[in-house]
Structure formats: structure tokens, C-alpha cells
Design a protein that fits this description.
Length: about 300
């Protein structure tokens, strides 16, 4: 059976294509469509992960609802049944995968919050005792929980890789006042999400947010707290001093690292077992965080 990559909605103008998402113009608004594509090391893999797009859109919708009293967001609706008439013919393809949004003038910086020492932060800490220039106490181990969450912004370099920067550099790019506002807002959102996830048995190690301006108002935009933009760790398997099992695409990265692939296109096909286990991790993150099965039924023991 052919995989629907959602790169063509007849009658609808596509205005952008990312590693995972397709972007369409709908009147004055934008339609964000999450596919089942997966990327690693900034390369789109040839093998999709079934239901991944539904997990990304569903989790984003959940978090936007939960965090809506903290900051406005650009979502109009993710309910395909109330999408504009021009999208009616595409409802079945878009169901669970699409979000109609207002256009936003995006801030050109990713706003990252870290509560645990992992990834590029762990590498920098081992070399210099800092993360994005933020000094940390001595003697921390891999995956250790930080004394307090920290704000560590990043930009996109010309080759597409995230490039960590310090707060001073962010202030040069977008201004000191906006930098301070976004730092406070990022950490407030992280703390609320961290506490909710922890209640559901998941540790939110770190995450990135993107913001823009809609009609001059600062607005949360794009995906929010998904396994593609966050590190989710099962709390019952956590132990500092080592890398953690994860409910995100780290499993795929680890498999790829063991193949000898040089991280340049083309990437190798994923075996069926890797696809199935990756899907399990994405779906588990969705169901544990939302308390709802991906099919829409409450999970056992949920509120």
C-alpha cells in the first residue's frame, strides 16, 4: 500500500515543505499538515512511521488546550469537520494530521528549555562546565536533573542544523526586551508541561518552542511538546549517570548510529522491527500524556 506523503492537495496551494510537515495556503491562513516522515541527523529517512503525524498533531492540540491560559497560540482549529469548504474533499486525508493556523511573523530563534543534562548540553558541560554559556554546578552526571530549568536558545545555521547560542547573542538578534520575555515564557511553559508529564509517569528532559507575532501579539506557534521537539523519558526507568530510554526518535538515532551510516543522504531503510518499536514509543507518549488512546478512547485509569 502506497504511503500518502500529503505533498499534494489538489486545488490547494502548497507554500512550504519541511522534513516532516507540509504547509498550505488557505485564504489568509495556513494549514500545517504532519506527515509520517521521520528525520534523523537532519536527513529525512526513506521509511515512514505509521501514525506519527497523528501523534504530532494530537499532542500539539492537547498542549495548546492545556497551556492556552499562559500564552496565545496561532491555532484556529484542528477539527477537520469545521475546516473551510475548500478543504472538504480532503477531510479524510487530513483527519488527525492537520491544524488550521493564523499566519505569524516568526521570531528567528528557537526557545529551548532544559531540565536535565542530555544531548548537546551534556557534551558542552563535559567540555566547559556550561550549557549554551550557562554555568552549571560541578560534578553533574549524564541525564542529571538540573537544580533549576535553564533557557538555552538556538538558531538555524545555513546547513539546517540547530546552532546553540547564548542569551547575549539572542539579544543581539531580536532585542534584549523580547529575549527576556521569551526566556521567562519558555521556562513557565516548560514547568507547567513538566509537572503534567511527571504526573503521567514521564520526565520532560527538554523541549523547544517557537514564537511569532500575530497582529502584533506574541504568540506560540508550530508544534508544541511533541516527541520530535522534546525528550520524553519514562520516569520508572530513569537513573542518572547514563543515557535514558526515551519515548521519541532517539531509538531511531541509536539504531542508525550502529549501522555505520555516515549521516549523509541517502539514509538506510528502517527494518520493520525498528519501525514498529518507534511507533510504539510515539503512541505511548501520546496516550500517557493525554490519557486518551490514539483512537480517541480514554486510557485505563485516566481521569
Amino acid at each position: 500500500m502506497a504511503v500518502d506523503d500529503l505533498t499534494d492537495l489538489p486545488g490547494i496551494r502548497r507554500v512550504g515543505s519541511g522534513k516532516v510537515r507540509e504547509l498550505y495556503e488557505v485564504g489568509d491562513d495556513l494549514l500545517l499538515v504532519a506527515t509520517d516522515r521521520i528525520s534523523a541527523f537532519d536527513v529525512v529517512l526513506p521509511t515512514p512511521i505509521p501514525d506519527k503525524g497523528r501523534v504530532l498533531t494530537g499532542l500539539t492540540a492537547f498542549w495548546l488546550d492545556l497551556l492556552g491560559d499562559t500564552v496565545p497560540n496561532h491555532r484556529i482549529t484542528s477539527d477537520v469537520d469545521v475546516f473551510p469548504e475548500v478543504l472538504r474533499a480532503h477531510r479524510d486525508r487530513l483527519r488527525g494530521r492537520a491544524m488550521l493556523c493564523r499566519r505569524a511573523d516568526m521570531v528567528p530563534v528557537e526557545c529551548v528549555a532544559r531540565g536535565y543534562l542530555a544531548g548537546s548540553g551534556w557534551k558542552e558541560y563535559r567540555a566547559r562546565g556550561t550549557v549554551c554559556g550557562v554555568p552549571l554546578p560541578e560534578g553533574l552526571s549524564e541525564s542529571a536533573e538540573l537544580p533549576e530549568p535553564i533557557f538555552t536558545p538556538a538558531t538555524k545555521a545555513t546547513d539546517g542544523h540547530d546552532e546553540n547560542i547564548d542569551v547575549g547573542r539572542m539579544a543581539e538578534l531580536v532585542g534584549a526586551d523580547l529575549t527576556a520575555t521569551l526566556a521567562d515564557l519558555t521556562l513557565a511553559l516548560y514547568r507547567r508541561a513538566r509537572d503534567h508529564a511527571r504526573e503521567r509517569g514521564i520526565l520532560l528532559a527538554d523541549t523547544k518552542f517557537e514564537f511569532g507575532f500575530v497582529d502584533g501579539r506574541l504568540t506560540l506557534a508550530d508544534e508544541v511538546l511533541t516527541p520530535d521537539s522534546s525528550r520524553f523519558w519514562p520516569a520508572d526507568q530513569y537513573a542518572s549517570g547514563r543515557a535514558q530510554p526515551s519515548l521519541d526518535k532517539q531509538y531511531v538515532r541509536d539504531w542508525l548510529a550502529g549501522t555505520g551510516w555516515d549521516k549523509r543522504p541517502p539514509a538506510p531503510e528502517l527494518p520493520d522491527e525498528v519501525v514498529a518499536r518507534t511507533r510504539e514509543r510515539y503512541v505511548s507518549a501520546y496516550e500517557r500524556i493525554t490519557g486518551t488512546l490514539l483512537q480517541g478512547r480514554p486510557t485505563e485509569g485516566s481521569d
